[in-house]
Specification:
308 residues, alpha/beta, 5-stranded mixed beta sheet, 4-stranded mixed beta sheet
């Protein structure tokens, strides 16, 4: 039997954080600005990380940098290590504190569907602290699978089989009050991983329409502001139409969109009592209202317009 006793350098979480930031920004310079470090300092950190793993992690292209095969492998582990590190710090900080229930969802559901529901739950369970994580549906599901959260409130395609469905809703196009038909559709979208984004772009592609993403944000308020300004159009659930926009109804300018299904997923049962109670609370409240509580719709009625 051969035993490899060669020592590998440990993976420094600070280096891994810089590595992940470079991947997210696609730039050494932009990552340095986000981390408040100089570009040479970022490059030196990546040299140290490459020395630690013994492989190059990036390769230069005309459009910037991209991951090598080894870098792509490291990326998944780096994200998991950083999440575990954050979770360990959080758990230590909260030792002896209230029981914690961790819920993941998208920014629009957190803002428009959940405030009153979570307030009422907190009133009934004062001993429980709710940790709310906002991200796209794909990332929220991954966090649930990796046990970083207890519950996930996410959108799925209506034709996707699921025992976790609460209600279904129609997706509608919305735009500014003075919006006019365009040859190339300008879109304001959540980042990749959002099921509504996928439905919109697939429908436009199937309809043979030209489109471009001119505004992207993980903040629903920013997306609504971009739409109200006339910069772009987007699609939302019929129950979540904001004030100050019009519903764009047309068979020629914009294609019909597939409905979505709102699902509440949890870790494998049995759940902790506090988690089970929050799951029941959310499911019951949303099922009763069809997703349209007082927080689900902005004040004021949204108009509809047909663009032919």
């Amino acid at each position: 039997m051969t035993i490899n006793c060669s020592m590998r350098s440990p993976l420094d979480t600070d280096l891994l954080r810089t590595f992940v930031t470079i991947v997210e920004t696609e730039s050494f310079t932009a990552s340095g600005e986000r981390l408040r470090r100089t570009q040479p300092a970022v490059s030196m950190q990546m040299k140290r990380l490459e020395d630690a793993v013994g492989k190059p992690l990036f390769e230069q292209t005309r459009r910037g940098v991209r991951l090598t095969r080894e870098g792509d492998i490291l990326l998944g582990f780096a994200r998991r290590i950083l999440e575990l590190s954050a979770e360990a710090h959080n758990e230590i900080d909260r030792a002896g504190a209230k029981e914690i229930v961790r819920l993941g969802t998208s920014d629009d559901y957190a803002r428009l569907l959940l405030p009153e529901i979570l307030r009422d739950y907190a009133d009934e369970h004062p001993q429980v602290q709710i940790d709310l994580t906002c991200s796209n549906g794909r990332d929220v599901e991954r966090k649930l699978q990796d046990r970083f959260i207890d519950l996930a409130l996410i959108a799925r395609r209506e034709d996707a089989a699921s025992d976790d469905a609460i209600w279904s809703d129609k997706l509608v196009w919305i735009g500014a009050n003075d919006i006019m038909p365009e040859e190339e559709i300008r879109l304001a979208l959540f980042p990749a991983g959002c099921v509504c984004r996928e439905i919109m772009t697939e429908a436009l592609r199937s309809a043979g329409r030209d489109w471009t993403v001119v505004f992207e944000s993980d903040n629903i308020g920013a997306i609504h502001a971009a739409v109200r300004s006339g910069l772009a159009v987007t699609a939302v659930e019929e129950a979540l139409i904001p004030d100050g926009v019009v519903v764009l109804e047309s068979a020629t300018w914009l294609p019909e969109l597939s409905p979505i299904r709102l699902c509440l997923k949890s870790r494998p049962k049995p759940l902790r009592p506090a988690v089970a109670a929050l799951e029941h609370h959310i499911r019951t409240r949303l099922a009763l209202t069809g997703g349209m509580g007082e927080t689900a719709r902005y004040a004021g009625a949204s108009a509809s317009v047909a663009l032919l």
